[in-house]
Every structure is written in structure tokens, then in C-alpha cells.
Amino acid sequence: MSMLDEMPAPDATAVITDVVHSAKPVSRLRLVMARLRSTPRFWVGIIGLGAIILWAIFGLVPNAWNYTDLDIYNMGSSPSRLHWFGTSDIGEDIYAQTIVGLRKSLIIGLLVGPLAAIVAGVVGAVAGYLGGWWDRVIVWVIDLLLVLPSLFLFILLSPIFKQLSWVALIFLLAGFGWMIMARVIRAQTRSLRERDFIKAARFMGVDTWTIIRRHVLPNVSSLLIIDATLGVGAAILSETTLSFFGFGIQAPDVSLGTLLAAGQSAAATRPWLFIFPAAILVFTVLSASLVGDALRDAVDPTSGVNRD
Amino acid sequence: MTENLIDPAASNETSPSVRPGPTQPNPSNHLLEVRDLHVTFPQPGGAVTAVRGVSYHVDQGEFLGIVGESGSGKSVSSLAVMGLLPSNAKISGDILFEGKSLLGRSDKEMSKLRGEGISIIFQDPLSALTPVYTIGAQISEALRLHDRKLSKAAANARAVELLKVVGIPNPERRAQAFPHEFSGGMRQRAMIAIAIANNPRLIIADEPTTALDVTIQAQILEVLQKAKDMTGAAVVLITHDLGVVAGNADRLAVMYAGRIVETGTVDQVFHAPSMPYTVGLLRSMPNLATAGHTRLVPLEGRPPQLSNLAPGCPFAPRCPVVIEACRSTEPPLTVIGEDPLNSAACLRVAEIASGQLDRTKLYPVPEPVATAERALVAPETVLDVAGLERHFPLSKGSVFKRTIGTVRAVDGVSFDLRTGQTLGLVGESGCGKSTTVMEILELTKPQAGQVSINGRDVATLTARERKALRKEIQVVFQDPMASLDPRLPVQDLVAEPLTVHGVPAKDRLEKVRAVLDLVGLDPSMASRYPHEFSGGQRQRIGIARALVTDPKIVVLDEPVSALDVSIQAGVINLLQDLQEKLGLSYLFVAHDLAVVRQISDNVAVMYLGRIVESGPAEAIFENPQHPYTKALLSAVPVPDPTVERSRTRILLEGDLPSPTEDITGCNFRTRCPLYKLMDAPGKEQCRTQDPQPRAVQNSVVACHHAERIGLLAAGMP
């Protein structure tokens, strides 16, 4: 190699810094947001959910009736100017009841979804990262909870919960809603564990909890956010199911589930008792699911069209 | 090698901007001609023009090499020839194959041509072969597609024949195997068999050896040459490795930022490069012929992003001889001297060609660290590994696991590392070199053997002592993107080792700024995230993180193999400078022998979990005593056509055996070229006795017949 032989060193200073010539690099968050913004589903869902929440907060303001009020002059009336959604057999205002029930269902949904996701994240990350016996025991518990029919358990436990306030229901629902996601997080963590940056942290001597907190959880956070969002709709549905069968929210509290239970016998004859709460429920769950769906497609590049 | 390097009939084939007016070249002269090809991909962030006016031609039986870094457009331009670009790609220009345009043809017509006229060999043979069909079925499918009269039995017989041609042992049996049962090298051979099945006139090989080990690479290149000679087809070999084309290609085209920037015969391009980029690329590559004596000359900066190209020459920001005109006008491909096929795209090409600008002085050679700045170190052993073993049980069954064998990943490895020195641990993938360093880094009691750091056996450490010792030994990983947590800013990443040792936040920040400065990064960039940096910069961040605790030992696990060629040199130089300034000891793991030669004082060569030869780098590279070392060295391509043509290769047969296999005696004998030359008692010794490491000349060799290595008469570089 003639020209590559020894050569005298000229007295030039070597500039070591590479220069970044690119325009501002696109961060992952911005990319996700951009994808979200271009999904119509996301807009339908978020606007619907926002409207429902606003309605639940302020919906009672223009209404003349409270949910405990009984209008003895208008029992079992169809929707009218006085009672927008009609009244029940004993003269309760269905509009007021629906809003109060919706509030409860929303609170339960919005708390249970994230709570279950947090449990799933911590348990899954611990099982996946520690491996060995920890993993085996946790997976065994998860599998056990998965094979137990949860509705059956709820029914068994309901005498205890009937004595407690409806808040206990939140923990019960969260306690049975985290298992599948925990398995997903566990699998994710197991692959993260072999990634170089986790290895690097281990070889630096960073302790296990710090690794889970600093490196594992932030890297599975997108999954958890999706799970929390999708969990909202699912939790509302489970709450409604339980209350419908009389095992969830107990009188005098109302939720969409108890309203549906009360109105179901009249669904054919006096449809307003049933249709309004049912429509609100469907709309709420649909909106929450649309947001969660759009979020999953935006975060996960392998789902659908957003392959990059 | 074919002789028609320069085709006089093609004399007026130049770049579009200097094409002499109306006298268009007669297209039928060339097998393949690409004229002013542009390929644009529309993207949400603006269109990316991956290929910007590429013109080249290939004649019958010619071997053209296309060289470029990642993102230079070399693959896209060849996919365009095959008509395999995604449908959203916008293509303009013209592609003529045997005088007929390929653009605008229907997929059906193209399919007829593919395989019969042009065939392609991809980089990753696993994803290029269908996993659910046998290899034989896939070859006969290719045959029957183009010749419908061929009976099934005849096609199968021909498939077996083809497998035999590409050197697959037991072709009858192997034709019945599925792709996953083949090793990487064998899959690539099968791909070549499919490619030549219909006697194509042109074979396009897109990085055919990049995913393979160097000894397998040598085999595949040999098979490719053989296939070319047999079918008489022209070959277009696309690669980033200048060494690969040096020995095989007739002509060469160097691509940069979507254009051809230099073209000519291999001798012209390698011996008298005229584009500063080519000059820099050749100078920045560590190569076996020069490594160890000269410092590498880094090619600073990084390739431009094709989405927003500034006007002017795309190489201008990195060019050492840039002039004002370069920043405003993009230079056309201009003929350099007498030969119309030898041209370069540089405004100062005349000056470089005539010698006014000295090629060897284009790039400033970085000066070594001044003696005053060098750390004084007492020569003592900092890391001592003795008889290290790591076996993994191989189990089967999901419910009732039972052990069916052992993977001997590391099988009795011993070496020591001294202050201020570099030990290069070399081997092909699967030889156990990474497992060895991971075992050392765990700082726990190994399965067998002993690891001592600073004279302390790590097996006897308490948890607190172990944590304190982690300060002394740090690691730099192969892929900087994977080893830096994408969710943390650089200052937190670099400071992480300090948080472990309870350093207060203020001191941490100061130290981080100091090390960032040390590795040549601007400390003001500390609050940015890793993805905002280029590959070379990211690896510098990785190095900064390793240095932040002032360690004595740094384990470098393939630190440059994930980087582009032009960026490697800068990182290697940095590592050398840091070693001198700080008195560091490096344990350098790599598969690239040229890089190891460049940086190491001592070298240990690993094969199947054992060290087969170790000693001073000089001794090992100049005078290898073990047949494996010798074969490994001869397989490394040297980016110099004269050296490549003159030397003979020692080709190893077959692939690396699985580490689960129990090979009695010497575990290299199944592939050993020396074993074949031995007499019966010699062979008997290899079969029955496990060779123990012993001193032969200047190195320690684990071979019974090291004294007779001369039997392998091979021209070493």
C-alpha cells in the first residue's frame, strides 16, 4: 500500500468533537404525540371522554332536581321539560340519578385503571428482573388469580364489602385487574434485563431497586400508560356488572350499574329508565377504549400502519 | 479475474453533467447501465432523496464493487435495479439491462427477469430464506419457476448439484434440511445456490458477508468468485468494507450521500484515490498491513442527513481541503486522467491527481500524547484470570426439565493484564470471549478457576468490598445506543457510577463535566439525551461513563464494531490517548483483527472457549504459531489490491462446531488445516490428547505441532 506508509506528522491540531449537523432530532414523545394527533379515533375518544367528565361535574347545575328528590306529582313520567330523562316509579329524577351514578362509575374507573397498572408494573418488573424463585412464586400467584373466576370471588366476598364503603370496591376491582398486564410487563422486563444499559448499571454496582426504579419502569412506562387507559373502560364495565347483580354499589349510593338493574324490568315498557343510563355507559366505555387503542397504536410501532 | 477492466466501447460513459452532448452511448454495449438514477422516499418529515443522480454500468463478466457507509444509498440503488423498492418510492432516471429499460415494467415482467436475468444475494440469509420449506425445495422452486418443463425430480437433482457446487457437504441430505438447521455461512451458500440456479447474467450481492465471521467471509467470497466463473455472470458487490472488494472486484464505485463520488479500477482507487473522502476512508481504516506502526487518521464528522442536504458538496463539512466554492456548488464526476472510467467528484481533483495537493498529507495525523502528559505506571498485574470456566447446562422439556448436555462457553481461560497495557481478546462469534468478560465483570466466584483484581481474589470479597472494587473496573459496551438508557440525559448517565458510591451531587456534576471534556465532548451538552448524538459521540459518552470513577481497568467489549468505518478511527485514537494519559489497563474484546492489532500490546486468540494462542501482539501477528491464528489472519481482507492478489489464503473448512459437541483431544482438529497434513501418529496425538498451552518462540500456543506450522506455506501480508 504505497500511499499509506509511514508519513511525517504535520502540526495540525486534531479536532475531536463531532458536529451534529442535523436539525432538531425528533424525540419519542413528540413522535408519539404526532401519531396520536393524526388518528381520528384518538380525537373522537378524547373529546367524548372530556365531554362525559365535564357533564358529570357540571351536569347537575342546570337541573332543578337532586338525585334524592322525589317528585310525587310525576311518578313514572316519560321525558319531559320538567324531567329531562323522565322519572322512576317513585318519582326520582332519572337525569339527576344518571349523573350521580356516572360520577361514581367514573371515579371508580379512573382510580382502578391506573391503580391496577401500577400494581402490574411493580409486580411484573420485580418478577422479570429478579428472576429465579421470586419469578416462580409471583408467576404462580398470577396464574392462580387468573384461573379463579373473579365474579365468583366477588360474590363470595360481597358480604364483607357490603359493610365497608364503596371505596373498598376500588381495591377489590384493582386487585383482580392487574394480572394479565403484569405478565406482559414481566416478559418485557426479561428482555430489558439482557439489554446493555441494564447490564452496565449492574456492573457499575447500582442496586436492584434503583435499577428497577430508574431503568426498568421508565422503559415499560408506555405499556403501563396504555394499560391504565384501557383499564378505565374495563373497570367501569366490571363495576357496572357487579352493581347490576347487586354485589357492587349498595343503596343509597347509585352507580350506572344499580340504575341499569333498577330499570331493566322496564326496558320494554318505559325505555327511558333503561336506555339513558345504558347509552351513557356505552358512550363512556367506548370513549375510554378509543383513547387507549389510539395510544397503543401510537406507542407500539409494530401495530398496524405505523411501522417505522 | 477477468481482463476486460476497461471497456473502450464505454469510453463516453461519464456523469450526466459532463456527458458529451447528443452522442449517447450505445446502450447495448453494457450488460447493465444505470443512468442518472434518483430515488426519493416521501416521508411525513419531508422527502428523503436516498439516491441523487447515480450513473454506472457493468459489462459482461465484470466484477463491480460499490462501497459506501450506511446511508450512502448503495443498497437503495441496487434494489431499484431489481425493482424491489417499496411502491411509494419515486424513481427517475433510467436503468437499462441488456439495452432494455427496466423502469416502468410490470411486476410480472420483472419477476420473469429476476432470477433468470438478474439475481440478488441479501445480507441476512435467514430472513431471505422461507423458514417453512426445505433448502432443496426452495432451490428447485427457483428452477421450476423459470423452466416450467423441468420435472420435479430433475429440479431436485439439479438443486443437489447446485448445493454441491457451493460447497455444502452431504448435499443430498442437506437439501432436505430447513433453513434454521443451517449455520449462517451455509445459509449464505444456499442463497448463492439459488442465485445461480438459472444461470443469471448479473448477480447483485448486497453486503453478503457482513453478518458473517471473518473465516466464513473468506469462504463465501471464494464461493462467489467460483459462482461467477462458472456462470460467467457479472457481479455487483455492495459492501462497506474496502477490504472485501480489494481482492475481488475489477472496478470500484465509492458512494457518499447518495452519489458516486469516485470510480475507477481497484488499483486506481486504492493506490491513487482522488476524492478526499476516499483518501480519508482508506487512511482511517485500521488494516493489518499498517496497523500497530502508524496512528490512524480519523475522518471527522459524520455523513450528512439526506432529508435536508445543504447546497454544495455534501462532503465539504468534513473535508480538510475545502475551499469556498465547495460550499456553493456540488462538483460533478470529472474524469481524472487518461482513463475515461476513472473519475472523481471533487472540485480540486486536478490538484490532487497532479500531486499539487499531497494525498498523504491531506489529513492531519493526530499527534501522540506528549511525554509530559503520560502517566507513569508501575508494571504490576491488575487483573489475573486463571482457569476460568463457565458451563451452561442445556435442558430440554418444558414441564420436566432434564439436562441433555453442557455448553462449554468458557472452558479454562487464563490470562493476566498489566498496568497501562492492552490485552486484546480475539475470536469469532461464539468462541466465548464475551462470556469471559461478563464472568469477570460479575465480580463473583466463578464456577471454576479464579479471578483476581489488584491481587485480591474476587471470590473472597464481602458485598461492601465488591461495591468498592467496582470503582476499579468499568466497562464500555459494543452498541452505544443499547448501553445508554434512552430515558436519561447524558449527565445522569455519566454520573450513574458515582451515585453508587455516594458522591454528593455537586461533585458529581463537576466530575461529569471533567470527563466529558476528557473524551472530547462539549460539557455544555450534558443535559441532552443520547439520541441527540451521533454514533461516535455516543460511544464517547459510554467511555466517559466508564472513566468517571477513575478506574484502573476498562473492559472494552467490541467498542468500535457498531460504528461506521470513518468514525472508528477517532474512537480508537481517543482510547489510545486516554490510556497514555491516565495509565489505564484495557481488556479489549473484538473480532476485528486489524483493530486489535492497532491497539493491543498483548493478544489472546480464543477458539471454542479456550485460548489457543497468546503473546505479544507483534509476535502473534507477524509470526503466528497456531494454525487457527494463521488461518484467521489470512482470512482478514486487506484494503490493498496488490497485497490481496499476491497472498494465498488458508481457508478453514466448515463452521465453528457447536460448543455442545464433545470433541476429544484438540477441539480445533475438526477444522484444522495442519491436522490434515500430519502423519498418522501426529493425527493420533491430536485426536487423543488435549494440547496444553506451551511456549513456542515468543508466544504461548495450545497445539501439539506448532513447530511444524511452516507446512502451511501461506503468503502472509
UniProtKB/TrEMBL annotation, chain B:
Gene Ontology molecular function terms on file: ATP binding; ATP hydrolysis activity
Membrane topology reported for the UniProt record: Peripheral membrane protein
Source species of the chain: Arthrobacter psychrochitiniphilus
Question: Which superkingdom heads the taxonomic lineage of this protein's source?
Answer: Bacteria
Primary residence: membrane
UniProt-recorded name of the protein? Peptide ABC transporter ATP-binding protein
User: What is the similarity comment for this entry?
Assistant: Belongs to the ABC transporter superfamily.
Single GO BP term:
peptide transport
Q: Name one GO cellular component term.
A: plasma membrane
* Alphabetical list of SUPFAM superfamilies matching this protein: P-loop containing nucleoside triphosphate hydrolases
Q: Which residues form the ABC transporter domain?
A: 32-282, 394-633
Give the record's keywords alphabetically. Answer: ATP-binding, Cell membrane, Membrane, Nucleotide-binding, Transport
Compartments where located: Cell membrane
